Amino acid sequence: MHQATTTTGGPTLSTRSRLGRRLIQLYAGLALYGASSALLVEAGLGLEPWGVLHQGLAERTGVSIGVVSIIVGAAVLLLWIPLRQRPGLGTVSNVFVVGLAMDATLAAVPDAHGLAVRIPLLLGGIVLNGAATGLYIAAGFGAGPRDGLMTGLHRRTGHSIRLMRTAIEVAVVVTGFMLGGTIGVGTVLYAVSIGPLAQVFLRVFAVPRASDGSTVVAGGQPRGAILRP
Predict the structure, then answer these.
(1) β-sheet bridge partners, residue 5
(2) Which residues are CB-contacts of 212 (< 8 A; sequence separation ≥ 6)?
(3) pLDDT tens digits, residue range 52-75?
(4) What does the alpha-carbon distance between residue 118 and residue 116 come to, in Å, rounded to a whole number?
(5) Contact status, residue 158 vs residue 62, Cβ threshold 8 Å
(6) pTM metric for this prediction
(7) What is the DSSP secondary structure assignment for residue 68, as one 8-state letter?
(8) For 20-43, how does the pLDDT look when each residue is reduced to its tens digit (9 = 90+)?
(9) Domain boundaries, the chain
(10) Which of 105, 122, 134 is nearest to 201 (CA)?
(11) How many CB atoms lie within 10 A of CB 105?
């Protein structure tokens, strides 16, 4: 029989250690997600859909792309209210950690010149993004604000998640491109590879359950969360 509490009624060491692992995964995943987005910016060969919007807004406002990411994430989170979505720790942390990590990485990484450097940065950024997605979603602390918007619209309208995702990301890319964001081969490569990559890393970073030895790869809304933190 599995023991869920100590003799004093508190959580067991196993329970605390799992929570500790999940928190580490959450914040490591979010930080790496911001770093991976920064690598895509440095590569200059095309960004992920929301990155196109963030870059376009940054170009127009003069605000750093990381700060723009935070502002946009907070604005999207406000849209959860009429959709009756409930944010988790991962949702709120996503808003701030990704943007801060992105700006920190951009400040630390030197400018890339030449395709011999930019292509590896692009490929590394996409793979790292997939790993980061697996890390933070497998922690099970809730979907990112942008994916919560997608799943919330799905529930409210009755339209498929695929349709909602496509509509939102097309609107985001077009708006970002018109504002000066970068669209290129990286945008296409990201779109076709991030799903399979994230799914692989979700399994790699799955957190074991205490009760039956099985694993959990996400809590809340994994299908939505896998697409974008």
Answers:
(1) 11
(2) none
(3) 999 999 999 999 999 999 999 999
(4) 6
(5) no
(6) 0.83
(7) H
(8) 889 999 999 999 999 999 999 999
(9) 20-205
(10) 134
(11) 21
Cβ atoms within 10 Å, residue 223: 14
Q: Return the DSSP state at 210.
A: S
State yes or no: pLDDT of 219 exceeds 90: no
CA pair distance 98, 36, nearest whole angstrom? 10
33: which 2 tokens? 């997600």
pLDDT per residue as tens digits for the range 75-99: 999 999 888 888 899 999 999 999 9
Say if CB 95 and CB 5 are below 8 A apart. Answer: no
DSSP state letters, 78-121? HTHHHHT----HHHHHHHHHHHHHHHHHHHHSPPP-SHHHHHHH
56 HSE (CA, 13 A, CB side) = 21
* Rounded-to-integer distance, Cα 194 and Cα 23, Å: 23
The whole-number average pLDDT for the span 193-217 is 72
